[in-house]
Amino acid sequence: MMVTIDLRSRVPIYEQIKNQILELILLGVLKPHDQLPSIRALALDLKLNVNTVKRAFQDLEAAGVTYTLPGRGSFIAENALENNQLKGKALQEIRDAVLSGRANGIEKDEILALVESIYQDEK
Amino acid sequence: MMVTIDLRSRVPIYEQIKNQILELILLGVLKPHDQLPSIRALALDLKLNVNTVKRAFQDLEAAGVTYTLPGRGSFIAENALENNQLKGKALQEIRDAVLSGRANGIEKDEILALVESIYQDEK
Amino acid sequence: MMVTIDLRSRVPIYEQIKNQILELILLGVLKPHDQLPSIRALALDLKLNVNTVKRAFQDLEAAGVTYTLPGRGSFIAENALENNQLKGKALQEIRDAVLSGRANGIEKDEILALVESIYQDEK
Amino acid sequence: MMVTIDLRSRVPIYEQIKNQILELILLGVLKPHDQLPSIRALALDLKLNVNTVKRAFQDLEAAGVTYTLPGRGSFIAENALENNQLKGKALQEIRDAVLSGRANGIEKDEILALVESIYQDEK
DNA sequence: GTGGTCTAGACCACA
DNA sequence: GTGGTCTAGACCACT
């Protein structure tokens, strides 16, 4: 699993895990019914607490991105990205951040440029 | 003072206060050396605890946006917006939110449109 | 009375008044039994609240620097500077400030230079 | 953690904590990325309220001396002392205190000796 | 366990 | 009246 964590980020670790798995699906690296690594294996690999990884997996399942077969493991859902119910929350976060940025005097063009650069990165 | 609070927002109340005061400065409603409402008056007005409002004012002062004369009140600093040391943090928040949005399958154009609409609002 | 107040300073206004009167005595401008301006006149002159000036005068009298004849006014005491019981407190304030400066990485020489420059100013 | 508090000092408790942590960094006892004690543990240890300790840590973080990972703890920043934005304020406090001391008839040499003795203490 | 937010309320210093 | 400090304690998010 190509997942890297930045412990110094203010973004919760479980969010980083979720985001990176979603990115891998988006990029086609992970396909429907592919098996995810076990929670314990990933926690060991990333040197994280099992609970932290568990929380990420729980969220993904709750959002309809993955499904779990008890005793077998977690797998990518059929229509993972279409199911994803996390989009709304993500959009709201962007709205909040942009509003805060505007209040702090950040120019519109500054943000537009930032968005462009982010979407250029690894597409 | 035209400050409105959304108690149900995930954005901390004191951040909402900070942002709204910054907006008022940006819009020219509040000018250097203008006096802000007293923390007690604002707390009463917004039905908040004094400490919550105080936290907002403390942050603004630490950021160089306002200055406080104990026993007299808080005032807008001479170069409030130039001093503002909160911009960097705000930009970082936008970056994080956009990255998270991208991971969740939000299209670039969707974000660009959102940014445009936010900046059209009251500028 | 040549007293000037800096409303923007973190030093309490009544302390500024006390300090300036003490300086005037130190410089010989005010001599024993000279009459100080009335509290009201000074408050009017400096555009301050009467209570603020009153507090300064009270402190000076309590410290043995001045004496008051009810209905007549306040006067410089015979041995104003020798009597002054405020020295100890002032020394303690310097100690605290220097300790704090040391903690914040200010070099000894920096402070020594500052002290020299202050004592050169108007002596 | 070797932190001692003087409850009877006019220096706010949270300032005492800030100063002592800064001293520990200055002395090399605390190094970049070292973890500070938890605010709860320190509060318990010093018999203080959690919020008082929190205020100290908040200030240190705002000044760029520490960084905080929610849920994990607070740590010394990479360039803690270089970042420290509190130096200016500390210098201003010394200036004010010395001016006040001069007004109260404290001799220059008295202050110079005091500064020397303070810097001899534990350097 | 960690820190983050918020409330309620006391007491003090200053204007 | 103003802001500043401190306490006690609740509730939440994250590890």
How would you describe the overall organization of this protein?
The structure is a homotetramer of 123-residue chains. The first copy, chain A, is mainly alpha-helical and 123 residues long. The first copy, chain A, contains 6 helices and 2 strands. The mean pLDDT of chain A is 91. Chain A binds chain B through residues 9-11, 15, 18-20, 22-23, 26, 81, 84, 86-87, 90-91, 93-106, 108, 110-112, 114-116, 118-119, and chain B through 9-11, 15, 18-20, 22-23, 26, 81, 84, 86-87, 90-106, 108, 110-112, 114-116, 118-119, 123. Chain B binds a DNA duplex (15 and 15 nucleotides) through residues 12-14, 38-40, 48-52, 54-55, 57, 68-74.
Give a short summary of the structure.
4 copies of one chain form a homotetramer. Chain A is mainly alpha-helical.
